[in-house]
Design a protein that fits this description.
Largest sheet: 4 strands, mixed
Shape: elongated
Strand order of the largest sheet: 1-3-2-4
């Protein structure tokens, strides 16, 4: 049996007047203040009676690791906020999940802005997150950047329900893209043109470029296909 890690205290959250101790999943203790957590989080506010000082010195255990809680708790204190661009992607995703889970409104808006920045390099992860949390605009933009990716990758990353929905989106997108190429070929033939637009040639090799080059493409009718409906 593996030995239980010896708890250590967070260097950032170690206030001597703290009235609540929270332990991360990797045994780091955060000395924080009830009022801050209750003010910024609906979940912590609703659980206030279970975490009162008069309940003794019991430590509250959370499922998140220390690097995620360190980012999350910074949004519950009046101080300069962390630069999310400098945070490792896996930590950022853990932070995003925690911000949604604990309803930390001070973090949600900036989290969604940074999540959008990750679409280019991590479209499937962003799509999975956005679909599970109901962020339709984010999900639609991410989905359009996944149409050139391997189905096996999508099956590995996306939740089962999201993957099933993505399959339909994927098929619809490619069907419309083929129709657009057919229209282009007809257009070239009808006007006796000899060469195909370089952008279309690139898009034929990498379908997600249809979306990246949407402002300069000759036909864009299928680029509005949605993964999720926007209310």
């Amino acid at each position: 049996m593996a030995a239980t890690p010896t708890p250590r205290t967070s260097e950032r959250f170690c206030a001597p007047d703290a009235d609540l101790t929270i332990s991360s999943s990797d045994s780091v203790l955060f000395k924080v203040h009830h009022k801050n957590l209750e003010f910024h989080s609906d979940i912590f506010a609703n659980a206030a009676n279970a975490t009162r000082p008069e309940n003794g010195d019991e430590i509250v255990h959370l499922e998140e690791p220390a690097d995620v809680l360190d980012v999350l708790f910074q949004y519950m204190y009046r101080q300069p906020q962390p630069d999310l661009q400098l945070i490792d992607f896996s930590v950022f995703m853990g932070f995003a999940e925690a911000a949604e889970k604990y309803a930390v409104y001070s973090a949600l808006t900036v989290m969604k802005i940074q999540m959008k920045e990750h679409i280019t390099n991590h479209p499937l992860h962003v799509l999975d997150f956005a679909a599970r949390h109901g962020h339709a605009d984010l999900a639609n933009e991410a989905a359009r950047m996944t149409v050139g990716l391997r189905m096996s990758d999508a099956a590995t990353i996306l939740a089962p329900d999201t993957f099933k929905k993505w399959m339909t989106f994927h098929d619809d997108w490619h069907a419309e893209a083929r129709a657009a190429v057919s229209d282009l070929i007809w257009h070239i033939t009808a006007h006796n043109r000899e060469t195909i637009c370089p952008i279309f040639a690139q898009c034929a090799r990498d379908p997600k470029l249809w979306y990246k080059n949407r402002s300069t493409l000759w036909s864009t009718s299928f680029l509005s296909i949605e993964f999720m409906s926007v209310d």
